[in-house]
């Protein structure tokens, strides 16, 4: 049977084929099988067939939804793939946090004299913090927007290569929240620098 | 008779910096009163403590001993936040290196600081326009500091300092970065602000500025060595000290 567009890594791909072919490819005996996909020509036979199969001690009957869940669980937590992706994401957040922190800190440093001047002429601490928060909000927005553009382009490219990437609202929400959290953490050093800034330095 | 109010009253000021183990006494028992209606110059050799005194008087630094009252408020005893508020309402600063915001136009440089005081935007821009016109920059409202000469920048800074109608104008060597002629113009502008409700204290090395002064206070080694009516300096004699 011809297949196309199958992508996989670390493990064998799914291959929908005849039983004989499958046995030959997997090198398993006549009395061995991992699973069969049953597509009934006459849906009416379904319940009867299911009842019969449930009586068999060594057969497990799974409907599409359960099968899908089991497969997802296998890939996400059973194989190394889920852990690898999670690790990559955490590493990305960490590296992103350091870069945002550094960028923000150098932006703040650049404007230290102006901030000190503002402090000298009587700006309140939260007004100075506002400067940092505007910058970080800008960085966060730029990060979220460019991240999504990249994700959508990748999604399109991978789709053309036969891989479906699901960008669910939950994923979007989670990554926006993670970005905001990361930016907030990254702004701490700058906020401390602004808070500790000695206004007397403007007269030096 | 005009009522001159006391803007600064400082008693027994001492300031010691403590970097590591070495104690550096910079101010040693300074008592001083500055009133509205006068332009006072604070002079003295380099390192004598002029800048430090200005910082302590304006609440930018806390004295190690002694007390400062700024417009009747004991600013040296207030937390930083509250001291900042007193400065915002009562003090206009003019700095040696202007300290303008490079990204903002002359107009916004002045208006921003007014906005800090809670003046509504539109009104702030109106007052800023007026203040800039008063210092002769009516035609430069949209220029950024980078597009202005040193003298013009210092005029913007003066407009910024006086736009909020401060009771006290403080300056640390506001003419040091300017040529003599421009420097004189700048001090004249500051002098013009002196009124029954406003006094000025300027730190300077330039002996020629004494002709604008009502009073010259000299400090050396953290102590006041003389305080009196200014004697106009000889125009032709010597340059600025050091
Ligand atoms: N933050 C600080 N830490 C330690 N020492 C300081 C500090 N600030 C100033 N000093 C010392 O205090 C002394 C007086 O400094 P200040 O800047 O007040 O002098 P000044 O009279 O303004 O001098 P100049 O005319 O050169 O500006 C100097 O010896 C300086 O080294
Ligand atoms: Mg100084």
Any overview of this molecule?
- The complex is a heterodimer of chains A (204) and B (242).
- Chain A contains 8 helices and no strands.
- Chain A has helices spanning 19-26, 46-54, 64-78, 80-110, 112-120, 125-160, 169-186, 188-196.
- In chain A, α4 runs antiparallel to α6, α6 (125-160) runs antiparallel to α7 and α6 (125-160) packs antiparallel against α8.
- Chain A is rod-shaped.
- The model of chain A has no long low-confidence stretch (mean pLDDT 85).
- Chain B has one domain: Rossmann fold (3-Layer(aba) Sandwich).
- With 242 residues, chain B is an alpha/beta fold.
- Chain B has helices at residues 50-57, 80-90, 106-116, 121-134, 150-163, 180-193; strands spanning 6-17, 24-35, 39-43, 65-70, 91-94, 168-172, 199-203, 215-220, 223-228.
- Residues 236-242 of chain B have low confidence and may be disordered.
- Chain B has a 6-stranded mixed beta sheet, with helices on both faces.
- The N and C termini of chain B lie far apart (40 Å).
- Chain A binds chain B through residues 113-114, 117-125, 127, 198-200, 202-204, and chain B through 51, 54-55, 58, 60-61, 81, 84-89, 91, 93, 95, 99, 101-102, 113, 116-117, 172.
- The structure holds adenosine-5'-triphosphate (ATP) and magnesium ion.
- The site of magnesium ion has 3 residues of chain B, from α1.
């Amino acid at each position: 049977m011809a297949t196309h567009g199958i992508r996989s890594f670390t493990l064998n791909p799914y291959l929908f084929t005849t039983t004989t072919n499958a046995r030959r490819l997997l090198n398993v005996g006549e009395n061995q099988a991992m699973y069969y996909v049953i597509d009934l020509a006459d849906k009416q036979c379904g319940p009867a067939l299911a009842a019969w199969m449930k009586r068999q001690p060594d057969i497990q009957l799974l409907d599409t939804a359960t099968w899908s869940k089991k497969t997802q669980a296998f890939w996400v937590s059973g194989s190394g793939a889920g852990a690898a992706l999670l690790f990559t994401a955490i590493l990305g957040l960490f590296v992103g946090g350091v870069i945002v922190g550094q960028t923000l800190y150098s932006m703040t440093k650049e404007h230290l004299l102006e901030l000190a001047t503002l402090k000298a002429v009587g700006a309140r601490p939260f007004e100075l913090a506002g400067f940092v928060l505007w910058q970080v909000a800008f960085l966060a927005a730029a990060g979220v927007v460019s991240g999504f553009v990249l994700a959508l382009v990748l999604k399109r490219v991978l789709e053309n290569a036969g891989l479906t990437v699901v960008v669910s609202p939950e994923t979007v929400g989670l990554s926006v929240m993670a970005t905001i959290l990361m930016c907030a953490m990254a702004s701490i050093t700058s906020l401390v620098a602004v808070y500790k800034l000695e206004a007397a330095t403007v007269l030096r | 008779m005009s009522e001159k109010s006391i803007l600064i009253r400082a008693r027994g000021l001492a300031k010691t910096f403590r970097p590591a183990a070495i104690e550096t006494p910079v101010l040693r028992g300074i008592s001083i009163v500055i009133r509205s209606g006068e332009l006072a110059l604070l002079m003295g050799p380099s390192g004598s403590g002029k800048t430090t005194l200005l910082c302590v008087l304006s609440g930018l630094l806390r004295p190690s001993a002694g007390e400062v009252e700024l417009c009747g408020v004991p600013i040296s005893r207030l937390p930083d936040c509250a001291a900042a508020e007193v400065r915002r309402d009562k003090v206009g600063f003019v700095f040696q290196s202007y300290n303008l915001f490079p990204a903002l136009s002359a107009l916004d440089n002045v208006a921003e600081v007014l906005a800090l005081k809670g003046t509504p935007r539109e009104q702030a821009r109106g007052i800023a326009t007026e203040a800039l016109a008063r210092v002769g920059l009516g035609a430069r409202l949209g220029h950024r500091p980078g597009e202005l000469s040193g003298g013009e920048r210092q005029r913007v800074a003066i407009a910024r300092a006086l736009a909020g109608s401060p009771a006290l104008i403080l300056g640390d060597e506001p003419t040091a970065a300017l040529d003599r002629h421009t420097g004189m113009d700048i001090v004249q502008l500051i002098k013009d602000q002196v009124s029954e409700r406003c006094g000025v204290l300027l730190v300077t090395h330039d002996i020629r500025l004494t002709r604008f002064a009502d009073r010259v206070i000299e400090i050396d080694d953290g102590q006041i060595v003389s305080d009196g009516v200014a004697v106009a300096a000889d125009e032709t004699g010597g340059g600025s000290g050091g």
